[in-house]
Amino acid sequence: MSPPDSTDVRPLYAKVRGELVERIRSGVWKPGQLIPSEFEIAAEFGVSQGTARKAISALAAERLVMRQQGRGTFVVEHTPAHVLFRFFNMFDADGELITPDSVDASATVARANASEAAALRLDAGADVVRIARVRTRRGSPFIRESIALPHQLFPDLAQTPKLPNTLYDLFQKSYGILLVRTEDRLSAAAADPDTAAALGLAAGAPLLRIERLAFGLDARPIEWRVSLCHLRAAYYLARS
Amino acid sequence: MSPPDSTDVRPLYAKVRGELVERIRSGVWKPGQLIPSEFEIAAEFGVSQGTARKAISALAAERLVMRQQGRGTFVVEHTPAHVLFRFFNMFDADGELITPDSVDASATVARANASEAAALRLDAGADVVRIARVRTRRGSPFIRESIALPHQLFPDLAQTPKLPNTLYDLFQKSYGILLVRTEDRLSAAAADPDTAAALGLAAGAPLLRIERLAFGLDARPIEWRVSLCHLRAAYYLARS
DNA sequence: CAGTGGTCTAGACCACGTG
DNA sequence: ACGTGGTCTAGACCACTGC
Predict the structure, then answer these.
(1) What pTM value is reported for the model?
(2) How far apart are CA A91 and CA A79, in angstroms?
(3) Is the CB of A48 under 7 A from strand D?
(4) Quick check: B61 CB within 7 A of strand D?
(5) Which one of A49, A189, A202, B134 has the lowest number of neighbouring Cβ atoms within 10 Å?
(6) Of the candidates A110, A106, A131, A108, the residue with the CA atom closest to the CA atom of residue A122
(7) Does domain B80-236 bear CATH number 3.40.1410.10?
């Protein structure tokens, strides 16, 4: 990333943090792996334990690592359960997190259209992987969504025979891409005929529309996703 | 709040933080006021500067205070601009924060109905202040919302002649109640005839429904608000 | 028991804003 | 020049985990 130079005026702990992030981004430290202790990191970078601690604490606040007293610090591992808890924000009327299933997922490669290229900041002519799917809860469809990803980062994703329900763990394990931040833009929309048919509704029914942009470690947009949701008594929860 | 006792096993910085929170909650430190320096707080509580610093940093992370290098630390002041930036999450298609106006606001006092009592955790028979209003942008109505507040906390609010556009600054300045956290539950709904008329729409038009619960310093729900929004190209932004 | 993260101290120097 | 918050150090002890 940015090489150390004499004009770098960032605090020491920020530089150490940057080096640690790079090790996670590049895969030197794998998902779920135990990283060195505060003292070892301090010794390696020639800083005090307090400074190493501040760098690691920053990573913990960004949820790139998990600290456990007495055990050590581990690179975050995007298991399906973790991904749902962290990135899926829909709850039932009784406050229970919804765990959706995914059916009918199909992935294709195509030239990015204008909105995809703009959302993912792609060069003209770049390809995207498109995923279209319907998600169900207790057997009945409630979300229809379409996803676009830069083809360059996911070269053989469209050939994957059976796409899993949660994608972000696949992104981390198979493609080395860790999603760390999302921006969801929410609005309401009337169901178009296709979506109404897919969700078993009358055309014109009100749907929650979620347009999500997910970002990776280098702050680049990795995923663009539009979800049309028929929530019944459920809701999307946004905190603070 | 919780008196110091010998079985209190919280870390020192957490106890100091609690004392500082109490000073803000009780109004000993007023909105916008400069609080003592790290060294003064450290001396007062008999801890080191590092521990006082950690307590104050926790308050800054919760956005109860604002730190400014070279100037000092100030109790957060909920000005209208600050409240919009912090608690209003709607943006125009071009990414600009929407600054709504408020018209037709009316406040009344009534016995809490079942949903109000449940949301605000009120005792049976308690009263609420109800505010109903329509919010406009550039002259055209786009949000119809109804708000419920515990009457006990806002005894004379219903007599206030002209309610301001942003309420949370009024809550802090006139009633000493600082809102620190919100939970927004979002869904889609078809416009009922009344709402459609208020917003100039056809009945059945899809609206974004936002049900907000806002919490004060003692983690008690203070405000329950239901907003029905006709956003056109605008959206509600939820980060991470 | 050894090793880890979590807390706490005492002191130093720096960067910034104000008078 | 002074006082503020921001960084950094070196060392101590505690609480928890796993052998």
Answers:
(1) 0.94
(2) 20
(3) yes
(4) no
(5) A202
(6) A110
(7) yes
